[in-house]
Amino acid sequence: MRINSIARSARPRLANLVVILCGLFAFAAHAQLTVYVVRHGQTEWNREGRIQGGTDNPLNTTGREQAATLARTLSEVKIDAVYSSSHQRARQTASVFEGRAPVVAMDELRERFFGKFEGANDKDAAIVADWNKRRFTWSDDMEGGETLESQSRRAEAALKTIREKHKDGGTIVIVGHGGINPLLVSHLIGVPPQEGASAINQGNDEIYRVEIAKTGNTSIWKLIPRTKLGEL
Fold first, then answer.
1. Confidence (pLDDT) at 175
2. Average pLDDT of the segment spanning 218-229
């Protein structure tokens, strides 16, 4: 992978965003399938820095505002379908597209369950340190949770199901989580999922756009808010 260029705008126009071409395998002027990979809006556990995982929390006020901003950001994009994790925070985020495209909740897109680590934050320093040490170990079930390998297989299966429904291309949105989205992106662009899981860190207000050309070549763009210009 190599960085070929940086662009300040992209089709379609996206208000109040800067667009970074952050990884390019090959660029095609007309992508067969465009996938917007979105992380759900903020929850109270996000705000408190808690390990959320499989705990089914709703959006907080900031999260609902982020979801509304997402709808405005993609307001000029013709969307064919939206696929969401079945966790309520993802479904609530995806609901901003209702009326514009079918919205489908999928269990395969749920976040990984972290077993005994769920709910811990910096006040539980030893627990969080142990979680950080173990969470990217491929076969570690986190003492009653799910392995990264299992989550990666779920992500791959979800993408296979979704792409089967869009063989003729189009534009779709996937609303997921901070853990599963890096795996989805990894499978889409051909990065080993264990590498992508540990390297990709998507904020609640960030969007990835993956373009899959008819040739199979893939490019990925990161759309960030103006409040994060330091990432340029």
1. 98
2. 86
- Reference 191, options 213, 210, 166; nearest CA is 210
Contact 120, 131 (CB under 8 A): yes
Active site residue 40: yes
Q: Which of 87, 108, 111, 187 is catalytic?
A: 111
Cβ-count burial of 220 within 10 angstroms (0-12 exposed, 13-18 middle, 19+ buried)? buried
Q: Please indicate whether residue 30 is annotated as part of the active site.
A: no
Q: Considering the candidates 40, 87, 177, 187, report the single residue annotated as catalytic.
A: 40
Contact (Cβ atoms closer than 8 angstroms) between residue 6 and residue 232: yes
Looking at residue 86, the DSSP 8-state letter turns out to be S
pLDDT, tens digit (0-9, with 9 covering 90-100), for 171-218: 999 999 999 999 999 999 999 999 999 999 999 889 999 999 988 899
Across 43-72, b (16+ Cβ under 10 Å) vs e yields bebbeeebbbbbbebebbebbbebbebbee
Calculate the alpha carbon distances from 80 to 1, 24, 155, 231 in Å.
Answer: 30, 25, 20, 30
Contact 72, 16 (CB under 8 A): no
CATH architecture, range 17-113+146-231: 3-Layer(aba) Sandwich (3.40)
Residue whose entry in the numeric block shows the structure tokens 């208000």: 15
pLDDT tens, position by position, 10-48? 334 444 444 444 443 343 444 499 999 999 999 999 999
Domain spans of the chain? Answer: 17-113+146-231
